[in-house]
Amino acid sequence: MKMKMTIAVLLLSAVAAGYAGAAEQTAQQQKMTLCNKQAGEKALKGDDRKAFMSNCLKKDAKVEGMTPQQMKMKTCNADAGQKELKGEARKTFMSSCLKKS
User: Fold this and answer.
1) What is the pTM of this model?
2) How confident is the model over 17-58, as pLDDT tens digits?
3) CA 57 to chain centre
4) Average per-residue pLDDT for the chain
5) Is residue 71 a contact partner of residue 63, using CB atoms and an 8 Å limit?
6) Phi, psi of 67, deg, nearest 5
7) Can you say whether the dihedral through the CA atoms of 66, 72, 77, 81 is positive or negative?
């Protein structure tokens, strides 16, 4: 009988701890919620939303006041930098990247 009672108490404790942990969001989860809310308020869709969310979730990103086009430009520029594109290749890539909807 004591064994069953001990098991029941342990199970209830584990369940209670699980609910408490689920209620508390990590900093990244809070940031995701905030970025998602901002993207919804701006009615962003498709690649514009992806670019916005990507930049918003970056550690030190400052997305306040940026238009979707500015966000897209920032993302395309970062992609071109990662690919180490220069000159005509960079111009072609940027043009193609910015035309995507």
Assistant:
1) 0.40
2) 554 444 566 666 777 887 887 888 888 889 888 888 888 887
3) 4
4) 75
5) yes
6) -80, 165
7) positive
